[in-house]
Amino acid sequence: xxxxxxxxxxxxxxxxxxxxxxxxxxxxxxxxxxxxxxxxxxxxxxxxxxxxxxxxxxxxxxxxxxxxxxxxxxxxxxxxxxxxxxxxxxxxxxxxxxxxxxxxxxxxxxxxxxxxxxxxxxxxxxxxxxxxxxxxxxxxxxxxxxxxxxxxxxxxxxxxxxxxxxxxxxxxxxxxxxxxxxxxxxxxxxxxxxxxxxxxxxxxxxxxxxxxxxxxxxxxxxxxxxxxxxxxxxxxxxxxxxxxxxxxxxxxxxxxxxxxxxxxxxxxxxxxxxxxxxxxxxxxxxxxxxxxxxxxxxxxxxxxxxxxxxxxxxxxxxxxxxxxxxxxxxxxxxxxxxxxxxxxxxxxxxxx
Length: 352
Known about the structure:
Layout: E1 2-6, H1 12-21, E2 26-30, H2 35-45, H3 50-58, H4 61-76, E3 83-87, E4 101-106, H5 127-140, E5 144-146, H6 149-158, E6 166-168, E7 189-193, H7 202-215, E8 220-224, E9 238-241, H8 247-255, E10 259-262, H9 271-277, E11 283-286, E12 300-301, H10 306-318, H11 321-335, H12 337-350
Parallel strand pairs: 1-2, 1-3, 3-4, 4-5, 5-6, 7-8, 7-10, 8-9, 10-11, 11-12
Helix pairs in contact: 1-12, 2-3, 2-4, 7-10
């Protein structure tokens, strides 16, 4: 019997798609570290900086071991389980001595030497230990399923893993749209949605929006999400909504936008891209990380600068709307979304 487990709710859509293909597959739910483990992890972190303390705590061996114990108890409750599919490489779901095997789903490995890797996800005290732990987890897995080709390449570069074990499965949206919208709002607006505005490059988006507004005064750019400390000054043609958006709000903004802008400084495989494409909303972005893997070349920027993004915005403003929206929806349809990902996972495991 195959069982699925995750440390957060990002796996929900994929696991649902897997269980639609095989209802006998067990979903063990989400494992979260106990409060006691987090306190011990914080004490072991040995830092007084609040932001860094949260990072040290989340990646500490104490927290990882606690989550591993919880996972072990859930697995033990079902003796028929033979393989565990886990989203995330925080810990191995089964010990090396176990009769069970496991596979890992990841959007990318931790890379302590990558200057683009977010500071908020980089422990200092546990950096070497966490990297070593991931290497052991990946090498012990039957398969490592990566969401993007970028993640697959990074994993093979960083760790001693057999390439035949590392399978790219793609990704999908966090919610399902009710179909494409082949029109867009008039006057036109562009949108960029995400939390942690510095990592999402919202300052770059704002400047691109200002440039587009200079050339086309009717064009607005909406930036929405939790800023997490980045302040963007008021500027013509740019509207800020500095709070986390509900799923319904995200859908409303995407459905009628002329385009979604993604300018992330680091973003392995943003779900927002698939959420936009399923509405037929074109995506403007530079080909960094896994971002460009599902975006037509017509809206893919050569670089992630305000001027380059504004040039792609100009293209979508001056060109007829419907062909680009059809192309965006076609890209989403051809990707297969989570259904295709689920088929790839089960197809790989069936050949085990």
